[in-house]
């Protein structure tokens, strides 16, 4: 073949081909051709070598590289990690994915067969962003254009909440011009002149919109096929319905789409969002395309533009992040509207590994929660103070002027929060039996060791899971509890509902004791006691097995100790007097007997600068039960 090629190319006459394979050196080639072949061979060898190279992992602890990036060079890893730190998701990968990439259609099969009227209301899509990656924004825009019927999509309104990224200025304007060249007048942008926060950005988008219906979305989304028609059809039927699509998860590292189950939206007493199971009434319909009645709504929503204005849009007094969606949900239900989740409307939402713009979400969330409580929750507002462990009088947090929102509630003739609890969200159990709560302040808490694993460790308090210990349960949540196996082994962390099933000892006293033999160290103890009932007697509560005030007997047991903030506790023998005991949890009469000797979990902290210690931080929530007994909840904070 080589000889034939040479003859055709250079006019070389055919040679007699021997029966053996000639060496390359025996074949006379023009110097130019030899050079080209040599370069091709070198390229092949280079490719083989690169495939064999195993690059050193520069960031083995980074969440970015747990599932992705094994083939990246060290330089590429550094670039990807820097972008991940800045944005909270994999911009390196996003910049290399097509803007019009296909995503799985996660709708129910019956949704795909459903037909909608042609003459549906028009739609304005609002995209909110602040220092978002350019490729993320452009992919969101592209998905909306490609997956929304053009006769329904009136406009896409971008709201920039004072971004500092340079590419979100001139370059983004150029991209908008390019889109508008193909789709005249489709895109517009609103730019804040100062940072005003998520809620005000959404309000700005609503003010700039002109279509019949507004869909207020984050800019880090991809809408799925057929997402708009169910929303527009339902709002055409009833303009007072606020709609939430079903969210799917775009993973922050590899951008794989994970399908999420259809569920209702809810919240806890701290106003953190959570998913609720589908109501029985929905299952009774036997129609998986039917709207789901929902107590609350997440951040992404669609509404009739005029109706949303009539009920006050959003509370512009909210700061930065958190609580604004719960406030809207309460206002909608209490003031004559309703909230629904539509199973046939799916939106893929990119969930960040961290929020670079707000390292501690609880600061703004706590303030906003108090604002919601003061306007919409009536006497139930104290539940919010309990959840955030704040004094009811003078909490020390300025939640702003709420007079205009109270006037709005009065003007709209809204229902009470008690009506909302009873008719809309009965799963939200009021803490009406609370008679006292408070905090023992410190910086060291019980936490969970490396995952997977169930070893309790000492760690800095951060008020998030798994630093939660409870002695009673109102739902089947998968909280993690500190348990004593009853065998003399070390305590370990177990899912609370599983601990109950296994009959593990999980009821603990909080105990503050005096000086340790070393005069510069004191300690705090959790004590697992023999089963005792905590009961009331003449409006006082005490320990014991009969109506008598208090009890006193020496407790001797094994002490679990730790020096440092991340050491595994170990056991020591220690005598302990009960005279300084503060509170005990209620133990059910059926609770299995614990060890003959009491188990004492002692936490010690060694401060390298000053030889001192700090007690365990525990939120104490005392409940008066219908039976007259007292029960206690502990939350390590």
TrEMBL record:
Residues 124-252 form the Glycosyltransferase 2-like domain. Pathway: Protein modification; protein glycosylation. It is found in: Endomembrane system; Golgi apparatus membrane; Membrane. GO terms for biological process: protein O-linked glycosylation. InterPro entries: GalNAc-T (IPR045885), Glyco_trans_2-like (IPR001173), Nucleotide-diphossugar_trans (IPR029044), Ricin_B-like_lectins (IPR035992). Its main location: membrane. Its cofactor is Mn(2+). PANTHER family: N-ACETYLGALACTOSAMINYLTRANSFERASE, POLYPEPTIDE N-ACETYLGALACTOSAMINYLTRANSFERASE 8-RELATED. This is Polypeptide N-acetylgalactosaminyltransferase. The lineage of its organism: Eukaryota, Metazoa, Chordata, Craniata, Vertebrata.
């Amino acid at each position: 073949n080589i000889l034939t090629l040479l003859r055709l190319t250079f006019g070389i006459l055919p040679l007699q081909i021997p029966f053996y394979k000639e060496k390359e050196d025996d074949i006379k080639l023009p110097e130019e051709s030899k050079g080209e072949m040599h370069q091709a061979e070198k390229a092949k060898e280079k490719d083989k070598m690169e495939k064999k190279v195993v690059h050193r992992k520069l960031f083995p602890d980074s969440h970015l590289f747990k599932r992705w990036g094994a083939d990246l060079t060290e330089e590429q890893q550094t670039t990807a990690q820097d972008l991940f730190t800045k944005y909270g998701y994999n911009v390196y990968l996003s910049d290399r994915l097509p803007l019009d990439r296909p995503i799985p259609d996660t709708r129910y099969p019956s949704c795909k067969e459903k037909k909608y009227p042609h003459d549906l209301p028009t739609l304005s899509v609002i995209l909110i962003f602040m220092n978002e990656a350019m490729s993320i924004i452009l992919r969101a825009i592209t998905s909306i254009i490609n997956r929304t019927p053009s006769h329904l999509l009136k406009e896409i309104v971008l709201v920039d909440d004072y971004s500092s990224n340079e590419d979100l200025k001139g370059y983004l304007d150029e991209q908008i011009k390019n889109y508008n060249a193909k789709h005249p007048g489709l895109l517009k942008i609103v730019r804040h002149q100062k940072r005003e926060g998520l809620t005000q950005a959404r309000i700005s988008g609503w003010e700039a919109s002109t279509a019949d219906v507004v869909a207020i979305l984050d800019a880090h989304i991809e809408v799925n096929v057929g997402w708009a028609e169910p929303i527009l059809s339902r709002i055409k039927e009833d303009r007072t319905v606020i709609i939430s699509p079903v969210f799917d998860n775009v993973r922050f590292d590899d951008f794989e789409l994970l399908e999420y189950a259809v569920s209702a939206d809810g919240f806890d007493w701290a106003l953190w969002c959570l998913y609720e199971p589908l109501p029985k009434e929905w299952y009774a319909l036997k129609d998986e395309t039917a709207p789901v009645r929902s107590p609350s709504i997440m951040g992404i929503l669609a509404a009739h533009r005029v109706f949303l204005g009539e009920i006050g849009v959003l509370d512009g007094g909210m700061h930065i992040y958190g609580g604004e969606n719960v406030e809207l949900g309460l206002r909608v239900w209490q003031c004559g509207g309703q909230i629904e989740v539509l199973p046939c409307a799916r939106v893929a939402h990119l969930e960040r590994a961290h929020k670079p713009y707000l390292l501690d979400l609880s600061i703004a969330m706590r303030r906003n929660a108090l604002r919601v409580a003061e306007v919409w929750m009536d006497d139930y507002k104290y539940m919010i103070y309990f959840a955030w462990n704040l004094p009811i009088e003078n909490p020390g947090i300025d939640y702003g002027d709420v007079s205009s929102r109270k006037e709005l509630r009065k003007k709209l003739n809204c229902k009470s929060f008690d009506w909302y609890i009873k008719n809309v969200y009965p799963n939200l159990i009021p803490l009406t039996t609370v008679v006292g709560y408070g905090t023992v302040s410190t910086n060291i808490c019980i936490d969970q060791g490396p995952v997977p694993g169930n070893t309790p460790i000492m760690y800095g308090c951060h008020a998030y899971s798994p630093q939660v210990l409870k002695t009673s349960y109102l739902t089947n949540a998968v909280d993690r509890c500190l348990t004593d196996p009853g065998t003399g082994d070390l305590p370990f962390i177990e899912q609370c509902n599983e601990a109950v099933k296994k009959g593990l000892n999980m009821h603990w006293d909080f105990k503050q004791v005096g000086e340790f033999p070393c005069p510069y160290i004191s300690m705090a103890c959790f004590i697992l006691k023999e089963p005792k009932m905590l009961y009331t007697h003449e409006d006082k509560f005490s320990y014991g097995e009969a109506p008598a005030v208090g009890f006193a007997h020496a407790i001797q047991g094994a002490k679990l100790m730790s020096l440092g903030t991340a050491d595994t506790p170990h056991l020591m023998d220690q005598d302990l007097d009960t005279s300084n005991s503060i509170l005990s949890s209620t133990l059910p009469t059926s609770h299995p007997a614990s060890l003959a000797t009491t188990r004492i979990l002692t936490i010690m902290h060694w401060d390298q600068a000053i030889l001192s210690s700090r007690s365990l931080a525990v939120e104490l929530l005392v409940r008066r039960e219908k039976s007259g007994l007292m029960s206690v909840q502990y939350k390590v904070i």
